[in-house]
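Saturday, quiet lab. Running sequence design on the structure tokens for the scaffold JK sent over.
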């Protein structure tokens, strides 16, 4: 994972209006926006390996407004799936009939949106943790699901997200089986989960997971739930897919 700098050195999520220039600091990423002429701005993003993305942005007005926000982790290194596979560093054991609520870290990406005329258009998207941005296959090679993979820590609360690297996801888990089982992973379509931000923190719509028996197979049934929060909802540019909840196996 990227080396973590003190949180105070980072910029915050939010809306920025630029009349002259702006520099944003993220983990291993800097973004510079400069006015280079009447109604014209330049956008430059540079990472720790000196890779540079440049764009020229014409505007109708004399200033430029952007929104910096956390987005779903589905675009880097390429858009290949809507599913996220969270592999718990510490598995959970649930005895029969028990229930638990946990908070876990889930990867995010960063979006930069151009705000104009009541719209928010995607200007740029990237990850601040490219070395840990990877895919995995869940299930059999011929019928499994390609997933965005992440090793996930169980944390104490919504306050435990790492700025610009992950958000915190609450999962309510119930074991309706007649025996205890270990839960070491959860796989779900994240397109059903909105992301919210406050300062440099991010949180994600919650999940409900029920361990139960379907015919003769033990499964975990996962659904997404909208959370109630005063944090700001991130914009999105992804097409929302109608995907039913997934039935995931347990260990």
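Result came back. Writing it out in full:
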């Amino acid at each position: 994972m990227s080396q973590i700098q003190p949180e105070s050195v980072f910029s915050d999520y939010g809306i920025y209006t630029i009349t002259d220039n702006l520099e944003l600091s993220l983990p291993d990423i800097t973004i510079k926006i400069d006015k280079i002429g009447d109604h014209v701005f330049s956008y430059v993003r540079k990472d720790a390996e000196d890779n540079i993305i440049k764009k020229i942005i014409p505007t109708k007005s004399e200033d430029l407004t952007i929104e910096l926000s956390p987005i779903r982790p589905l675009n880097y290194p390429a858009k290949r799936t809507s599913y996220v596979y969270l592999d718990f560093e510490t598995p959970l054991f649930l005895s029969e009939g028990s229930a638990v609520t946990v908070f876990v870290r889930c990867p995010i990406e960063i979006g930069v949106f151009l705000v104009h005329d009541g719209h928010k258009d995607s200007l740029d998207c990237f990850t601040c943790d490219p070395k840990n941005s990877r895919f995995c296959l869940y299930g059999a090679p011929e019928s499994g699901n390609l997933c965005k993979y992440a090793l996930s820590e169980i944390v104490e609360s919504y306050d435990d997200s790492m700025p610009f690297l992950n958000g915190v996801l609450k999962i309510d888990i119930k074991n309706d089986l007649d025996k205890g089982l270990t839960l070491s992973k959860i796989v779900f379509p994240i397109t059903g989960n909105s992301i919210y931000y406050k300062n440099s923190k991010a949180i994600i719509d919650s999940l409900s997971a029920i361990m139960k028996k379907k015919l003769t197979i033990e499964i975990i049934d996962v659904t997404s739930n909208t959370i109630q929060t005063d944090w700001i909802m991130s914009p999105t540019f992804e097409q929302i897919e109608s995907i039913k909840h997934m039935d995931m196996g347990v260990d």
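Notes for JK: The longest strand covers residues 201-214. DSSP finds no helices and 20 strands in the chain. Ask whether to fix the surface positions before the next round.
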